[in-house]
């Protein structure tokens, strides 16, 4: 059964046919007193991966996201010049793009891509099998038959690379080198470049010469990223803004104790000294680099992770920044909840959220806008599961409702709705990389009589802030605190390592024994280590297959500080900060047959041999404001049945009370899905379908109480021992998918053989 298609409810906006194609001139902000202004702020960022001292870069993400998301998002706007927007370009990202396109930089992934497939060493071939499936399986691998074939051949969560390599011939390795680079081109690139589309349509069996052509084409597209943004800015359609150079959390650089405003009981690092001068320098460098590339200073800034505090205002203002942005929950904290959401998600005093504010400190002031995190999260985490037209209808309908709510207050300016999110990470979860959604959205706004996409600078020029924040709450865009980056033991340890390296650097600088060139390099390495991303990955709530590599890179940058100033790095920098998280899979495999009675009761011993997945390990590079309903999934079997268990924070009967349907979709065995209606009920209705046709399935059952337990007989799934089993689950509310488990990819195992327990005993 296909996923329920989202339909408009009473009172929702129906997207006119004219919104689906064509463009129209955007009215002036003053065209109508109560027209709604929408400020899209797309934040484009990558941490600084390259170890410039050793001349080595282990990560491909600047290059791969460059040819897909940075190029593609700008192309989307170029298609609809009537829609104005803002793109925030982090200097550490721009510097790495130019390193590839102007200075011939490479990375480990690119090095292995270039090697002829018949000349790969065993180590390089194993790297290929580990790293070249790092793409969203549902949207970037399975739609392409040859890439899907290679993915299934790999058995990613079943075999290690060494064993899997026995199944790969030279032809397979060459096709894999091509496919993994190919899917990181934006879909629009295949419309623009006929030769690229022809390459993709061949599907496989490429030659080495064709592969080298593809990698050269990749650099050609990457080289267009900066000029394309400059063109959009020069024609007045896009405002380009910046961030402190290496993306540090400014308030924590200035004073780590600011974390206690939102988290009074937080455990802080041992060393609490602040470095306001580092914060100021990171801001100054960011502004200067932006001016160098684009010919003028930026007026706006997205402080890294939307992290703000009263103390950053003078530093930002002194750099010439006129406006900054953060999350609406910071405004709620700054106004003691006067501007906030009620328990139903409705905004109290909406005319004040959808307006700019001014913040002053030490005689300096900047204007601020506050992101609507509900709308931003809809794009980042939920609309991927909607049909594109339905998602746009939902979004425009919400904007119209905001227009109506703020119009009643008869202000002299149009309301400003700020939709701010990462510009690269969400699209790989969308069908067709979000092209259908963004095209429909931009055309819908271009045709809409009352909703206009604006640059923030233009809005503020016509409608400067009239409200003032008395004291800016210290926090970030995530839960209005700094809990992701400080307080966890590994995060605190990392902060102490930065402090110790900085102290050594300052002392050596004062000694006069280190050359200016070496000192400059050492400060660069320290500023890189101050970036937010390393601390993000040290937090247990974020995980990826490359956790160990992020840990290694962070320590390498600090080791470089010591090397450059002629000191031996402390032995502590040889040990992983976050423990050994190398190659930790996203879920564990069943280890024994289960003896489960399906009653919804939490019986510990019944599930001892199950595999498990924790929601905290998913969607590593993004973060959603709303907590997941399902906290953990266990999966296992006896000889007759597949057994599933869903746990929540609190009794499942309470946590899923507003959920209409739990859908369990199987990709193997293909075509099967299980629909559990009203899963919070003690004995919910359970129906099995195969290719949308109901299946008579005696023995299929579910029960909910403290937990939700589900059983499906193997015979009902028409599967056989040792056959692969791949599935995911989704929660639906009002026929809309509101949560997916896992957030990306699948839970994968194998149907047990008759001698499963004997094999596990021998293992």
Please characterize this protein's 3D structure.
The protein is of the alpha/beta class and 763 residues long. The chain folds into 4 domains: 27-45 and 243-260 and 275-469, 7-stranded beta/alpha barrel (Alpha-Beta Barrel); 105-221, no CATH class; 489-574, immunoglobulin/albumin-binding domain-like; 604-762. Helix content is 37%, strand content 16%. It contains 27 helices and 22 strands. Strands 14, 15, 16, 17, 20, 21 and 22 form a 7-stranded antiparallel β-sheet that branches. Helix 1 (61-79) packs parallel to helix 12 (225-234). The longest helix is centred in the middle third of the chain and has 23 residues, at 489-511. The radius of gyration is 26 Å and the shape is globular.
């Amino acid at each position: 059964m296909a996923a329920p298609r989202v339909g408009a409810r009473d009172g929702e906006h129906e997207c006119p046919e004219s919104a689906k194609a064509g463009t129209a001139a955007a009215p002036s902000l003053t065209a109508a007193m109560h027209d709604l202004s929408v400020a899209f702020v797309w934040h484009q960022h990558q941490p600084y991966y390259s170890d410039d001292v050793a001349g080595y870069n282990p990560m491909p993400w600047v290059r791969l996201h460059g040819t897909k998301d940075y190029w593609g998002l700008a192309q989307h706007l170029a298609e609809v010049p009537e829609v104005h927007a803002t793109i925030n370009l982090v200097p550490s990202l721009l510097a790495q793009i130019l390193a590839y396109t102007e200075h011939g930089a490479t990375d480990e992934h690119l090095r292995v891509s270039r090697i002829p497939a018949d000349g790969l060493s065993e180590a390089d071939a194993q790297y290929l099998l580990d790293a070249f499936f790092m793409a969203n399986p549902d949207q970037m691998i399975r739609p392409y038959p040859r890439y899907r074939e290679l993915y299934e051949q790999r058995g990613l969560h079943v075999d290690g690379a060494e064993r899997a390599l026995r199944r790969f011939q030279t032809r397979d390795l060459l096709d894999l080198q091509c496919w993994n680079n190919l899917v990181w081109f934006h879909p629009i690139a295949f419309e623009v470049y006929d030769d690229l589309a022809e390459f993709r349509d061949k599907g496989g069996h490429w030659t080495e010469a064709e592969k080298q052509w593809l990698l050269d084409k990749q650099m050609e597209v990457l080289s267009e990223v900066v000029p394309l943004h400059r063109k959009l800015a020069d024609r007045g359609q896009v405002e380009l803004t910046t961030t402190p150079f290496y993306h540090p959390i400014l308030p924590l650089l200035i004073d780590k104790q600011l974390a206690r405003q939102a988290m009074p009981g937080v455990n802080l690092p041992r060393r609490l000294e602040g470095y306001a001068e580092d914060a100021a320098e990171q801001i100054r460098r960011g502004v200067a680099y932006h001016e160098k590339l684009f010919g003028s200073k930026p007026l706006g800034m997205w402080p890294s992770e939307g992290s703000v505090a009263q103390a950053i205002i003078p530093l930002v203002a002194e750099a010439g920044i006129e406006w900054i942005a953060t999350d609406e929950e910071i405004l709620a904290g700054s106004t003691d909840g006067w501007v906030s959401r009620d328990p139903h998600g409705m905004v109290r005093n909406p005319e004040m959220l959808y307006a700019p504010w001014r913040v002053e400190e030490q005689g300096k002031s900047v204007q601020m806008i506050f992101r609507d995190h509900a709308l931003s999260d809809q794009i980042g985490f939920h609309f991927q599961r909607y049909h594109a037209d339905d998602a746009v209808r939902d979004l425009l309908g919400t904007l119209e409702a905001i227009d109506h709510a703020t119009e009643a207050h008869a202000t002299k300016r149009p309301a400003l709705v700020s939709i701010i999110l990462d510009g690269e990470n969400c699209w790989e979860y969308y069908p067709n990389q979000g092209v259908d959604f963004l095209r429909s959205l931009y055309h819908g706004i271009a045709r809409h009589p009352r909703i206009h996409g604006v640059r923030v600078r233009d809005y503020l020029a016509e409608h400067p802030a009239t409200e003032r924040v008395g004291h800016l709450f210290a926090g970030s865009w995530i839960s209005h605190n700094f809990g992701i980056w400080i307080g966890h033991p590994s995060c605190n340890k990392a902060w102490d390592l930065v402090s110790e390296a900085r102290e050594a650097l300052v002392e050596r600088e004062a000694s006069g024994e280190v050359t200016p060139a070496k000192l400059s390099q050492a400060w660069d390495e320290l500023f890189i280590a101050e970036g937010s991303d390393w601390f993000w990955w040290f937090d247990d709530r974020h995980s990826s297959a490359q956790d160990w590599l992020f840990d290694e890179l962070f320590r390498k940058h600090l080791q470089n500080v010591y090397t450059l100033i002629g000191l031996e790095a402390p032995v502590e920098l040889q040990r992983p900060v976050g423990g050994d998280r190398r190659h930790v899979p996203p879920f564990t495999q069943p280890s024994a047959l289960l003896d489960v009675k399906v009653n919804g009761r939490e019986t510990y011993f019944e599930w001892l041999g199950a595999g498990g997945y924790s929601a905290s390990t998913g969607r590593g590079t993004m973060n959603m404001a709303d907590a997941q309903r399902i906290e953990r999934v266990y999966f296992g079997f006896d000889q007759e049945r597949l057994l599933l268990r869903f746990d929540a924070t609190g009794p499942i009967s309470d946590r899923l009370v507003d959920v209409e349907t739990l859908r369990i979709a199987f990709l193997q065995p293909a075509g099967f899905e299980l629909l559990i209606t009203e899963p919070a009920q003690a004995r919910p209705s359970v129906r099995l379908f195969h290719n949308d046709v109901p299946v008579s399935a005696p023995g299929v059952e579910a029960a909910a109480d403290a937990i939700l337990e589900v059983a499906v007989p193997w015979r009902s799934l028409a599967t056989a021992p040792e056959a692969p089993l791949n599935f995911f689950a989704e929660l639906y509310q009002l026929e809309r998918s509101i949560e997916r488990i896992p957030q990306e990819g699948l839970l994968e195992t194998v149907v047990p053989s008759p001698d499963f327990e004997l094999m596990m005993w021998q293992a």
